[in-house]
Every structure is written in C-alpha cells, then in structure tokens.
Amino acid sequence: MSNSFVGRKVCVRGWIYRRSVVGGKAFVRVRDSTGVIQVVVDKKKCGEDIVRTLKDIGLEASVKTCGELVKQPRAPGGYEIQADWFKVVGYSRDFPIKGGEGIDYLLDNRHLWIRSRKLTETMKIKHSVLRAGREYFIENGWWEVTPPILTASAVEGGATLFPVKYFDKTAYLSQSAQLYLEALIYSLEKVWSLTTSFRAEKSRTRRHLAEYWHLEAEAAWYNMEDMMRVAEELVAHIVQYVLEHNRRQLEILGRNLEILKNYVEPPYPRIRYDEAIEILQKKGVNIEWGDDLGADEERVLTMEFDKPFFITHFPKEIKSFYMKLDPENEKLALGFDLLAPEGYGEIIGGSEREDDYNKLLNRIIEQGYNPEDYKWYLDLRKYGSVPHSGFGLGIERLVMWIAGLDHIRDAIPFPRFRGRIYP
Amino acid sequence: MSNSFVGRKVCVRGWIYRRSVVGGKAFVRVRDSTGVIQVVVDKKKCGEDIVRTLKDIGLEASVKTCGELVKQPRAPGGYEIQADWFKVVGYSRDFPIKGGEGIDYLLDNRHLWIRSRKLTETMKIKHSVLRAGREYFIENGWWEVTPPILTASAVEGGATLFPVKYFDKTAYLSQSAQLYLEALIYSLEKVWSLTTSFRAEKSRTRRHLAEYWHLEAEAAWYNMEDMMRVAEELVAHIVQYVLEHNRRQLEILGRNLEILKNYVEPPYPRIRYDEAIEILQKKGVNIEWGDDLGADEERVLTMEFDKPFFITHFPKEIKSFYMKLDPENEKLALGFDLLAPEGYGEIIGGSEREDDYNKLLNRIIEQGYNPEDYKWYLDLRKYGSVPHSGFGLGIERLVMWIAGLDHIRDAIPFPRFRGRIYP
C-alpha cells in the first residue's frame, strides 16, 4: 500500500497473522505475498457476527476484506484498512506452529512452516538469485541445455550415489551435469544448465543437502583463468541484483547490507593451494601439504579475506580425474574453488578439463575407476577434442551466504538430508 | 559473418563439417555454434604440410584458422575465409556417424549425434522456449520456487513411479511438483517451478519420456478459467518469442512459419469433454462418454482446430482426486487439457483444486489411496484454505510441436525411456 491509495477503497485477500478484539472492534493483521496490513473491523460497520467470529478465530485463517485505506502511524507499515466488509474464506483451528517448537517438529510441519516470515523472505531472495544467475549466462551468449538426471554412471565416485530402480536396470541420480555439458560444447560451445543434483551425504552438516540446485557451465576454448572470470562475474552480478531488488527482504532477515556491497566488484582475490596451506599452518592449524580442505579449514581461510576468493592449483590426488594437470607441475590439478567469506566457504568448484584421450584414460585408471563406465566420455577426446573448462555453483550455498542464514536447510523450501523425506 | 567484415582478417575456431582437396587447395567447411563457413587453405599461403593433412583428416576434427574474409557466392552463407594460417587442434579418425545409421545405433552414440544440425537447431529453439516461459511468469509477478524431486508419496498413483534407495528408506522421483506448489501459495500466492519430472512409462511412444522438463504453476484465488487464461497467454508468448528469435532454426528444420503465426493470439478455443465425445462419435471413432481420450482420439480432435484448444469438464473418474468437482454437476471435474494442433495433442494439463478438507478426503478414499500418505497435503485445507488452480506444461512436448519434430526424443539431448539410460 502507498500514499496514492489513501482515502480510497481497497480490497485485500490473505491470511490472519495477528488479531485482537477490543470492545466492538477487531484489529486484524492480514498477510499476503506482499506484506502485512492492519484491518480494523468495527461491528458498527461490519456487523456483530464477524467481530464475534474474529474473537475466536485461529491464526492463518484466510480472509477477504474491503474498506478505506487510511494513514495510521501506529500500524505496521504506516497504513490501515477501515473495513466495511470482511469475510472468512477458510477457517483455521489450532495452527500447529505457535512459536518455540523444536527443529524436528518444525521440519515435520515444513508445509506450514514455509509460511513464516523468515522462509518467505528467503524464498524471495532465492527467486532473485536464480533469475540473476540465468540472466548472466543468457546475456553473455551462453546456451541453456537440459542434461539428464537419470544416469548410468557416477561423476565423482560411487559412495554418495542414490540408486534408482530404472525399469529392469539400476540407474543413479546425477551428482553433476558436467560430463553431459562437456558433450554439448561440441555443438553449442558455451552451455549452462540449472538442475537438481543429488549427493547421499551420510553426515548432517549445516552446509550439505542430499538434493540441491546446481548451476553449471562449460565452455569450449576456455582455460581455467577464463572460467574463473566467468565465475566471479556471475557471483558479483547475482549479489548486485539481490542488493537492488531485495533490500527489504535482506533487512527483514537482518543481513548487513554494507558487507554485501563489498562483493559486487570483481575481480576476487586468488591464492594457490600452497599459499592456503601456509596461511593455515601459520594460524596453527594442524594440516600438511596434500590434505584436503574441510569446512573447518575453509572457515579459517575465509577470515583472511573480506571478499569471495579463489583457491587454485590443488594436489591432483584430492581432485577429480577429469581435471587437467598443470603443465608446469604435473602434481597439481588446474582446479579452482570459490569460497564465500564470513565463514561460509565453498560455493563454486571448477576446473580446466583434461582434453587428451590418453591422459584422461590414465587418470581414470589411476583413480581406480573402470574405463568402460566412461566410454562415451572418453569418446569426446577422440573426435575433435578442444581445450575446455567449467564449474558448478551450489544455489543453496549461495543463497545461504547472501541471505546470511546459519543453516542451508532454510535456503530450500523442502530440504532433503539423511533422515528427512517428509513432507 | 557479415559484409562489414569483408576484406578484413578474421579468425574462426570450430569443427570440420566437410572438406575436399583440389590441386593444391583444401576447401574446408568449418562449423561452430553460430553456423558453417568455408575456408580455403592454399598450400602457397599455408604450406604443403597442412594441405596434405587436410586431405586425410577425419570429419569433426577441431581446428583454428585466420585469414581474409571475402564474398563468395558459391560458398554456403555467401562468404569464405582465405586462410593464411590453419591449425588442427584435435584430430578425429572415423567419426562413428556417417549417415544412414539406424536409430538404436544413433541413440548409443547420442553424445556425438547431438552435434548434428537437426539436434543443434532444436536445442537452440528449446533455449528460447525455456527463456520465454520463465519470462512470462517473472514479468507477471509470479514467484519461482524449488520444490523437491525426492518425495515420499505419489501424486498420480504408483504404477509409473521410480523408486529410489534413499538412505535407509524408499523414496520416489517426483511426477509433478503440484502438491508442493500448493503448499507454497499460502505465502507467495502465485508460484511456478521448472523441474524434471519422471514417469516410468512402460510403453515406448513418440510423445512420452521417462524424464522430462515440467513447467508448473499454481495460484491462490484463481479459478479454472483464470488459470486457462494464464496457460494460453504463456503458450502464445512462447510461440511468439520463438518466431521472433529462432526464425533461422525453424527454417533449417523445415517448419512452416505461416502456420506457427496462427498460434500467437489468445484466446484459444474451448470445448467441453461432452462436445469432444460428440465430435469423435460423429467422426466414427468408437468411444463412449466416460472413456479417457488417448493419443489417437486427441489426434482426431486436433484436426478440427487450427489453433491450440482446451478440453474441459471431464468425468471425475478419469481425472485425479485433487481436482475440484463442478458445483453444477458433481460427475464432472474442473480440469482442463490444452491440446496442440497438427496432431500433436496434450501439452498442458491443469485444474481447479479441491479446497475443502472433507471433500478432498472423500476423493482420496474413493480413488483407493491411503489418506495417511496425504496427511500434509490434507493439512493445507485445514489452516486457511483458499480456492486455487494450477497446471503443468511438458516442455519437450511443446518443443516437439513448435519445432515440428516427429518424435519427442529429439526435444531433449539425452532422452530417457524404457531401455535407454546410456549415454
């Protein structure tokens, strides 16, 4: 509502968010997808019946009302509707969420909990994140493609695969569209996709989901540095877009806008894995060259930067077989991670891909996979192979960081993780 | 390439599409994601070695070249590059697709077949279809949401479900996001999602996939007619967008543009199921009131219309439990299908949803489901229920129709159907 409607008749439909009855007047706060407005229902204008009904009505009942919009400094938002008509559409008795419930109870009632302020505002931010991410690719000439979710083989090994009974065979849920995107660069050159990806993570952490949204990109003729530039421009564009379009949501969630503004200007700093290890050792972290960086190590590193930053050139043993090795030092893989600051850690993982048939075959064997499972993927190196690179961005991790959430489950309306499939 | 580049030095990277060597000159057609251009490689300028290499080189080798762009009426596109430098990046020997292969062989080599003209142009059309579809919702104030793929229960019964081993439980791949979108209208009112959906269809047909892209929408306060208007505006907007942006692709695929122009103006005609049965009976089709409309019946009906058209008010027995019954005749469900003309048939299915708790419970029991499996879905009718409607659009069916394909498998790069999981 705004000043231009003051003094005019307006109609609102929504759900009861708060209500109190004082004397012959009910003060009802009605929420809809745009916000909350106070409605005053006076028995003199709307009749005694409705005011009596409102005295006992449960929260979350759905209602329709019309009346004059007036300025009201004491009401939330500064306006109220003085109803001359008020109707209950759908009753509500004992709405199961009253406040103070434990997390498992709230997750069991997620289909109702998603009406909450926090989750609603977060979903609006996610809407912008998805929109801005796609916009970046479309406006820069990348083709959107639709890779499969049901696949015959794994990208990153079998431990975290979900098996599916697929007619008379077993298939697996995709962990990444990467291999398929690689096949598609031979006709479309620069491709991207937005799909769900699945990881059967056994541990429950604040930053893992079993099902998450994955924005992936792959480009022919791009080397690692080209691809890192795409990654940082993409993230900066998304943060900028959210700052422009979701200021209100960010404020409701208590996010510090000044900190976010720091993130809209690429380039982001780059350090090599070697340097990351040095930093960690100086900070007293017990880590050696060759160890993988876990959530704890990432958190320590993020404290050194006030922007997202890249870590590059990892030991090949801790990275996937498909990464190209550094021609200057074949112990290293040309991979990069982009870490979000403020303790959030990895949001993007990418690399230059091995484009030589024999080297790729060796890496597959070296890492203990069966080349037969990668037959078609190897083919891509037999018929006009090209240098190429790509990355994947975890949408919920990005939303978690931008919205300042402390748990990834709130970046998706119906989270999936070990033990959680309902609702 | 265009006139403004004529006489200037240009560089091109791509894959060899055709080549012939005459005397000391190689004529190489190089394709990239934008098209095909002829390159003349003269041994006087580029050396004898490269011309000898090009004599024996396999199709689909990747190359880089630079040279002067000249007008050449005999070359495809009207230009050619007179190379002064030409380099092979990735060789190719015996590219497995030479033309004339059978469909199963081509599907086994889908990772290479997707480089074909037909599939490449179709993917570009799909890119536009997805973009325009999302644009419609975003510009009309609908919120994008991310419903889950892994679910505990079925929307439309268990026969076509894919079971997934989900930690120590069994989950199912989503057939539709509808139930989750319904939960989300209580905070965001108008929501949409674009996800994969899965149906374990046992029969192989020209219009079914086991995995397909599903654009779904759901809105609070919308009745069936409101929702049909959204559906027809959406489809008209997408066709219009493709006509504006993909004329070249449509021409390459041999699509009749004049026919497509017929489809950009809503409203689309509406008939009731009763009328559809009458039309079919008059045409001599052996069908009775109460029978479902299959692909054959749909094909006959599409011949009566030169636009997409709606069929509404179906017998409740052939429609899902969640559809609201027609208050004027409770034998009928307030469901609608949108059928594409030219024999294509159903591309959208939608309905007004039952919003009364007791009626919904009865319908669940009547259709033989267990109310316990729909506990959270029933809850949505207990706490502030509202009238609402929604629909789902099958992206590949829409692409198939717009692009004029004769099989749905070509509307997706890696099709999934019974017997097909590789590559």
UniProtKB/TrEMBL annotation, chains A, B:
One Pfam family, short name: tRNA-synt_2
Gene3D superfamilies: Bira Bifunctional Protein, Domain 2, Nucleic acid-binding proteins
Residue ranges constituting the Aminoacyl-transfer RNA synthetases class-II family profile domain according to the UniProt record: 123-423
One biological process term in Gene Ontology: asparaginyl-tRNA aminoacylation
Coiled-coil regions, chain positions: none
Record key words, sorted: Aminoacyl-tRNA synthetase, ATP-binding, Ligase, Nucleotide-binding, Protein biosynthesis
Domain of life: Archaea
Entry's family note: Belongs to the class-II aminoacyl-tRNA synthetase family.
Protein name in UniProt: Asparagine--tRNA ligase
